[in-house]
Design a protein that fits this description.
122 residues; 7-stranded mixed β-sheet; 11 strands
């Protein structure tokens, strides 16, 4: 599976961004998709995930109510709508994919995109 993330940029606190991740090479409708982020000097952390089998969605507590993950199977694309952004959301955001469930641990995901930088200014 090849993943191509886009949509990052610089935004002021309180603003919004939408990230996109286009997938190829596998049946997208049967692929679990997720978003992670990694801030400078910190470990990569789970942000959101969408389990293909039953449509269940999970979010990190830090983004619940502000971020929304969604997918368009016809376009083989997953999105991350980020609202009410805070400076602490600044990170490189990665999309990830696997054939199983949503996992909080990055090591359990099989495929990764290249990352897109989100910078939130105060």
């Amino acid at each position: 599976v090849q993943l191509q993330a886009s949509g990052g940029g610089l935004v002021q606190a309180g603003g919004s961004l939408r990230l996109s991740c286009a997938a190829s090479g596998r049946s997208f409708s049967k692929t679990t998709m997720g978003w992670f982020r990694q801030a400078p000097g910190k470990e990569r952390e789970f942000v959101a995930g969408d389990y293909w089998k039953d449509g269940s969605i999970d979010y990190a507590n830090s983004v619940k109510g502000r971020f929304t993950i969604s997918r368009d199977n016809a376009k083989s694309t997953v999105y991350l709508q980020m609202n009410s952004l805070k400076p602490e959301d600044t990170a490189v955001y990665y999309c990830a994919a696997n054939s199983a469930n949503v996992y909080y641990s990055p090591s359990l995901w099989e495929y990764w995109g290249q990352g897109t930088l989100v910078t939130v200014s105060s």
